[in-house]
Known about the structure:
By secondary structure, the chain is an alpha/beta fold. The chain has 10 helices and 11 strands. It starts with 32 loop residues before the first helix and ends with a helix.
Amino acid sequence: MLDVPYSAFYLPVRPSAWGRLVPPNPTWTSPDAFLQARDALRAVGLPVHAWTILTHSSHLGAAHPDVVVRNAFGDAYPYALCPSHEDVAEYCERLVREIVSVGAPDGLILEACGPMGFGHQSVHEKTGGADWTSVHSALLSLCFCTACLPGYPDADELRARVRAAIDGPADTIGAPGTGAGRGPVEAEPVEAGSVEEALGEPAGAVREHRGRLASSLRARLVAAARELSPGLPIRTHASPDPWAAGPFATLPDADPSLDGLVGMCWGTQEEAASNLTRLSALSSPGGRLGAYALFLPPKPADEAQLAESFTAYAKAGADELHLYHVGLASAARLDTLARALRAVRS
């Protein structure tokens, strides 16, 4: 058994290439594991795209708590680096530059290219029993760290509205750990059916701020990658939901600089198809659309079921399958996957 205690950088860490935030090398494998895997795949004729995780790092968040996401209650999300902080945005750019220059991949796939949120947390996450709705999760994903506060028209009012929508009237704003405030701000408790309903008038400005944050980070990283490798194909994990946060960052508008988008397909076939259809409307002409599909448990190793799902994704517009996770599957499960793929192609 291999115990992997933290997310690592699978290329040699060159101290001169990094700023304040420095990714760790793995202790459980060689520091040049990516190069070895790249060469092995190319030797059998397979292109290699570097799956690049950006703002999701419990290791760096624990080491640098001042740059993590903080919700309306002042709770820190140590797994979530907030790209409003220049140190984080710079880290993401340096990460991309090192992967392109040292790793020399055939393409990039960007994940968490924007703010992380309430979901996709830490080891043995135990929030399921709280029965949060998607609206609750979106509200708890809004960041109130020191770098995000200036982006809101009235951060104290916004914080109060979020608190009221989660569990009732807000407490005093500006308590230790919540950031500086201007005194008690209260809001009546609400049963919100949407984020817009919960936030009221500030919703539009907050949505635009969040969208700009993801878009500006993505533009910065694409520019950095293309400066080093002008023709490099770049895809990003994306969501058509304007309030999305996490591995699949919101994509407010089509981005012609991207060669493809990858959409989440871990829910039901209907949910996945709907997500892909909405995302395809944001694809640039000639751009690829990938379906990020699970074939590990709890997904059964069932050839017919897998083939049916893959076919549904293709009908919804997917050109590619991004399968999670080939490296963690048994030989029997891989064989089932291969049969399902052959069935779809036939």
